[in-house]
Structure formats: structure tokens, C-alpha cells
Specification:
Blueprint: H1 3-17, E1 35-36, E2 42-46, H2 51-56, H3 63-74, E3 83-86, H4 100-117, E4 121-125, H5 127-134, H6 140-143, E5 148-150, E6 153-158, H7 161-166, H8 169-187, H9 192-202, H10 209-212
Parallel strand pairs: 2-3, 2-4, 4-6
Antiparallel strand pairs: 1-3, 5-6
Helix pairs in contact: 1-4
Length: 217
């Protein structure tokens, strides 16, 4: 990352910390802008901060964060190797789902984070991030298990770690499969023919970067 890009990421953080563009600013303790290596090959995108993240200003610091760290370790990565952000930067009250207008108000920050960091792989954790970045209404169960070619990089959707904590053992095994895809995408070891076949069986994402505000405009 260039010095200009690092400076712009710092400016963006400062802008987010002062943001009052939606109702979530009224009850937040802290803005949870993002955390990690600004030169990372992988950016993880979650949904929204929870209570502990709101208190500490850092994404994925609770039980979900512990599971994320474990899964990273299983594929030879550490938290310091990746960057972690969320679709919305402030905690929704009582951890409710973020609303469409809140996502709309906040998505420009994520767009700029991804543009500046310019990772090889983007990993969407759960429905909200996956639907936003793949521009689809298909749920995470349908779209996961594939590394999608996405604007000169790969996008790998997987379950949110919270789903594995409250779900079945199969959810965790599915996440392990997806993390293996992440590792292969970083290393350039994806089997293109197999991945293309899986993509056809899943969805054909219709991503318009100008409409979404990502990598275009």
C-alpha cells in the first residue's frame, strides 16, 4: 500500500468516527471502523458490531472472533495477516439486523476500504455482506462453497462465525471448507474448471460496481 493510500485510510477512519449519517450514530459507544493489516491479501466483511465490539471499537472480539481466529489458524493465517471490517460500522440496538437505509448510508466506507487495501480475496461472513457484495437475494447457504471471480479478485462467501456457534457441527465443517478455498485463492491454487462448475450450480452474481459503489464510478 502506498503512503497516499495509508493516509487516505486514516482519513477515512476519522470521517467514520464522526459520522452521523444514520440513526445508528445515536446509540453507539464507538464506531467500529475496521482492524488489521492494511496490506492484507484477505479482507473479511462481517455484518455489524456487537456489544463487545461497540465497547472496544474493534471488530470480532467476542466468541465469534475467537472462532474466526481458530479458523484462520487452521489455514496458516493469523489475525495480523488479514483485515476485518463490517457492512455497517455502528452497533444496531439489541444486535438487531441492520436496516436497508443504514446499509446504504454506510456502504461507501466499505467500498473505499476495499479499494484502498486492494486484497486478493474478499470473504463475506453471513447473509448481509454476501447479498450486498454479490448483489443477490440468494441466501448464504446457497452461495457459499464457491470462490467467485469478482472484479479482478476472488470473493468467498461463508457463514458468520455466530452461525457456527449456535448451529450444527455441519456449519463449522462447511466453514472449514470455505476457509480452504480462501487459502487456495491466496496461493493461486484454485481449480478453475471445478470452481466454474460450482458457480454455475449456485448463482451468476450480477454485480454492478457503479450501482453498488464498489470498484467503479
Amino acid at each position: 500500500m502506498s503512503a497516499d493510500a495509508i493516509a487516505r485510510l486514516d482519513e477515512l477512519r476519522a470521517e467514520a468516527l464522526a459520522c452521523t449519517a444514520c440513526r445508528l450514530s445515536e446509540e453507539r459507544t464507538q464506531v467500529v471502523f475496521g482492524d488489521g493489516n492494511p496490506e492484507a491479501d484477505v479482507v473479511f466483511v462481517g455484518e455489524a458490531p456487537g456489544q463487545r465490539e461497540d465497547e472496544r471499537g474493534v471488530p470480532f472480539v467476542g466468541r465469534s472472533g475467537q472462532l474466526l481466529d481458530q479458523l484462520l489458524g487452521e489455514v496458516g493465517l493469523e489475525r495480523r495477516d488479514v483485515y476485518i471490517a463490517n457492512v455497517v460500522k455502528c452497533r444496531p440496538p439489541s444486535n438487531r439486523d441492520p436496516r436497508p437505509d443504514e446499509i446504504e448510508a454506510c456502504k461507501g466506507y466499505l467500498s473505499e476500504q476495499l479499494r484502498l487495501i486492494d486484497p486478493k480475496v474478499v470473504v463475506t461472513l453471513g447473509n448481509f455482506a454476501s447479498k450486498l457484495l454479490l448483489k443477490t437475494e440468494a441466501g448464504i447457504t446457497r452461495v457459499r462453497g464457491t470462490a467467485y471471480e469478482w472484479w479482478g479478485r476472488y470473493l468467498v462467501p461463508t457463514f458468520h462465525p455466530a452461525a457456527a456457534l449456535r448451529g450444527s457441527a455441519q456449519v463449522l465443517e462447511d466453514m472449514r471448507y470455505d476457509f480452504a478455498l480462501i487459502r487456495n485463492a491466496i496461493d493461486g491454487n484454485l481449480d478453475r474448471e471445478a470452481e466454474e462448475a460450482e458457480t454455475e450450480a449456485a448463482i451468476k452474481p450480477d454485480v454492478d460496481p457503479e450501482q453498488l459503489g464498489l470498484f467503479g464510478g
